[in-house]
Specification:
The protein has 172 residues and is α+β, with helices and mostly antiparallel strands. The protein folds into two domains: 88 residues, "Winged helix" DNA-binding domain. Chain C. Domain 1 (Arc Repressor Mutant, subunit A); 72 residues, Winged helix-like DNA-binding domain superfamily/Winged helix DNA-binding domain (Arc Repressor Mutant, subunit A), CATH 1.10.10.10. It is built from five helices and eight strands; from the N terminus they run H-E-E-E-H-E-E-H-E-H-H-E-E. The strands form three sheets. Strands 1-5-4 form a three-stranded antiparallel β-sheet. Helix 3 packs across helix 5. 19% of the residues are buried.
């Protein structure tokens, strides 16, 4: 896991307590949104299971003995809004620092620049293959990858296929 540069407020106990003053609370929520997006991008993580969040160093600052989970449900609605790059499904938050459309565009640009239009790739090749190691989409969560590829399908630039028990994609 990559080293995390925590912002100053991470070690400030009130940061882990919902602030009663609305203007301060709005700033607090924006700071948490930014921290969450930065943390997940830095650690190349894409999914947060709410049930396990209290064990994450992101929400559990042992240094000051504070856990955001104590106020998580009160805080969740304004904190995790889709506009900020976060999406919720079945106790799992999908963290987007790029939208599925942006991931799809990145992948398609890579396909074009490597002369792979009209070829088939497995999902594994795209996110775990030797040829994509230096790409930002390397290690991308498979569910998020499929969302990105579906955006390309809608634009008629790709077709998700099944072959030999594997999922793949043909780029058009």
């Amino acid at each position: 896991m990559a080293e995390v540069d925590w912002p100053w407020q991470y070690d400030f106990p009130p940061f882990f307590t919902i602030q009663p003053h609305l203007e301060t609370q709005n700033k607090q929520i924006k700071a948490w949104q930014s921290l969450i997006l930065d943390y997940f991008k830095n650690t190349k993580s894409y999914v947060l299971d709410v049930r396990e969040s209290q064990n994450s160093p992101l929400f559990n600052n042992a240094k000051i003995n504070r856990i955001l989970f104590d106020i998580f449900h009160e805080f969740a609605e304004p904190l995790f809004i889709c506009k900020s790059g976060l999406s919720f499904y079945n106790n799992r938050w999908y963290i987007y620092w790029h939208t599925p459309e942006e991931w799809g565009s990145m992948i398609y640009e890579w396909i074009q620049s490597n002369g792979m239009v009209n070829t088939v790739c497995t999902l594994y090749e795209l996110v775990s293959g030797d040829n994509t190691v230096g790409e930002e989409f390397y290690g991308l969560d498979v569910d998020l990858l499929l969302k990105a590829l579906r955006t390309l399908e809608h634009k008629k630039k790709a077709e998700i296929i099944m072959f030999d028990g594997n999922e793949g994609v043909k780029f058009l």
